[in-house]
């Protein structure tokens, strides 16, 4: 990362605030610095504290200077119409996730009947909560995560968004979050869904390789966000023929083969990983009901840009939709 010129720090101090030079190294631009400082000031002003206002702003700026994500400092992140609470130890929701989940809901046929939805590796609960906020009717939704901290926070987010009227009061009964290990042999038998009745299965699982985590992720991610939610445990790969970073997809496709959901959306890291996951779907012997339906979505799948790419080990081609980085693999049951 290139060094910032001393003149830029003087501009930050003179044009924005004496606090601005603390934020500039992580924000990198004057506009971004001004925005983050405004959000920090709003947060401090709205928080009851015995700490003087200026001291509170200075303390928050010092945390940000260390690379602590702004969402952990402010305690929340806008996500569609929702306000998602954020705490250290649980992955922060990303705009790209919001984009592909919003696009997914536009593809659902209108129905007055509640949908049955399962979200695996749910984290803050942002994915199932966003789906619920965008659907016209209350649905039966289950979010699952192995982290007790994540499950606690997802339940808080459910209550928090009901209190803000972003979700209906009925969501307290129709949406549940539970701690479970999707790799457990008893996992499938613990679910309240029979084969074929699930409408949507979504997941944003750990998908970064150990090498990619150390070399390619931002410093704030490496130091402050939970590695558990980003990098698969190497011990999980036993018995699966795939790259270590793809092991969750191998297990998720086993779950799909049993539950036979009508629609499936997995978040991925890039086009290369999306292509590998698409290949896993195409060659999966127990996934023949999904043959010919696989799509790869970029960050912004609403864009009209489309292309078709060939899978490496198969003559089949898949459609790539949208603009930006590879972000999702979507497929649906042919008989639906």
From TrEMBL:
Record-linked SUPFAM superfamilies: S-adenosyl-L-methionine-dependent methyltransferases (SSF53335)
Record bears the keyword Membrane: no
Superkingdom, natural source: Eukaryota
Keywords, comma-separated and alphabetical: Methyltransferase, S-adenosyl-L-methionine, Transferase
Signal sequence residues: none
Keyword Membrane applies: no
Classification via Pfam families: PrmA
NCBIfam families on file: hemK_fam
PANTHER family: HEMK METHYLTRANSFERASE, MTRF1L RELEASE FACTOR GLUTAMINE METHYLTRANSFERASE
Protein name according to UniProt: Mitochondrial N(5)-glutamine methyltransferase MTQ1
Species name: Podospora bellae-mahoneyi
Taxon lineage: Eukaryota, Fungi, Dikarya, Ascomycota, Pezizomycotina
